[in-house]
Design goal:
This protein is of the alpha/beta class. The protein is built from 8 helices and 12 strands. α2 packs antiparallel against α8 and α6 packs across α8.
C-alpha cells in the first residue's frame, strides 16, 4: 500500500482489474499493453479523473524508442518530402516449432490475444505517433501452419493527407523485422537492426536512368530494438516516479485510442483459411 509504483504485466484481461485496485492507493502505475480488452473497460478508463491518468503509463515496444524519435525528425524535415506509404514487416517461424509455440497463442479469446492485436498493436502505436489518427483500417488473417488458429495477419491502414500503410505479421515465415517509409523526396528503411536514409529522389546513374539515392546509415540498433525501447520506457517512467512528475496525458490517450479501435474491430475480423 505504500509503494511508490506498481508494474502490471499480467494477462491482458486482468489489466483493468489491477488498475482499479491500485488506483485507490494513488500510486504510479506502469501497465503493459493493452490498457483494456473490452469497450466497457475502455469507457471506464476514459472517465477516469485526469489526476489518475497522469500517473498511469501504458507501455508499447516503441513508445520511448530512439527509432520513433529519429523517424519523427526525418518525416518532419521539409526537404525530405511528404510521407506517402509505409510498410512494416515482422515475422518468424515459431508456428512450426511445437516446443516454443506457447498455448496462449492458440486460445485467441479476442483480438488482443491473436497476432493482429497482441503483436500488431505495437506497430499501430508507432504509426499513430508518426501520422496521427487512423482514417480507415481493415484486417486479413490466414493460416499457413495447419494449426487451429491463424498465424499470419495483414493490417491495411489509411491516414489523413493521403498517407497509407500496411503491417504484415507472421509466425509462419522466415525472420524479418523491417520498416520502409516512402516520402516524396526520400526513403527511410530499417533492416537488420540498421536505419538507412536515401536522399534525394532525383538520383540518376551514368546512363541517366533513375537509381537508388545516396544511402546514409542513421543508426545501428546493436542491442536490438525491443531491448533499447524497454530500457528507455523504464527510465522514462522511473524518472517520473522519482521526481514526482506527472506523465503527459498524450501517452494515456493514444493507448486508449488504440484499445478502442481494436475493440470495435474485434468481431469483424475476416478469417481466411488457405486449406481447401
Amino acid at each position: 500500500k505504500n509503494l511508490d509504483c506498481v508494474f502490471i504485466a499480467s494477462p491482458n484481461e486482468t489489466h483493468v482489474k489491477y488498475l482499479k485496485h491500485f488506483l485507490k492507493y494513488k500510486t504510479y502505475i506502469f501497465c503493459e499493453k493493452p490498457p483494456c480488452t473490452s469497450i466497457k473497460e475502455s469507457r471506464y478508463l476514459m472517465k477516469l479523473d485526469t489526476k489518475f491518468k497522469k500517473k498511469i503509463y501504458f507501455n508499447f515496444n516503441y513508445n520511448q524508442s530512439s527509432l520513433k524519435t529519429i523517424l519523427k525528425k526525418l518525416i518532419l524535415k521539409n526537404q525530405n518530402g511528404k510521407p506517402i506509404f509505409t510498410s512494416i514487416s515482422f515475422s518468424h517461424g515459431i508456428a512450426f516449432n511445437s516446443k516454443k509455440y506457447s498455448k496462449w497463442r492458440l486460445k485467441q479469446k479476442n483480438i488482443f490475444d491473436n497476432i493482429l492485436g497482441n503483436l500488431g498493436i505495437h506497430y499501430l502505436e508507432l504509426l499513430i505517433s508518426l501520422f496521427g489518427k487512423i482514417k480507415k483500417m481493415n484486417f486479413v488473417s490466414e493460416n499457413h501452419s495447419n494449426r487451429k488458429s491463424f498465424d499470419t495477419g495483414i493490417i491495411n491502414l489509411s491516414f489523413k493527407k493521403k498517407m497509407h500503410a500496411v503491417i504484415y505479421l507472421s509466425y509462419a515465415a522466415s525472420f524479418d523485422q523491417s520498416i520502409k517509409i516512402h516520402l516524396t523526396n526520400s526513403l527511410i528503411e530499417l533492416r537488420n537492426k540498421k536505419l538507412f536514409f536515401y536522399f534525394p529522389r532525383d538520383s540518376f546513374d551514368k546512363s541517366g536512368k533513375y537509381c537508388y539515392p545516396k544511402i546514409k546509415l542513421i543508426k545501428n540498433f546493436s542491442k536490438g530494438l525491443h531491448i533499447e525501447s524497454l530500457d528507455s520506457s523504464l527510465k522514462f517512467f522511473l524518472d517520473k516516479v522519482y521526481y514526482r512528475r506527472m506523465i503527459n496525458q498524450l501517452h494515456f490517450n493514444n493507448a486508449l485510442y488504440l484499445s478502442k479501435i481494436l475493440n470495435e474491430k474485434n468481431n469483424k475480423i475476416k478469417f481466411l483459411n488457405n486449406e481447401k
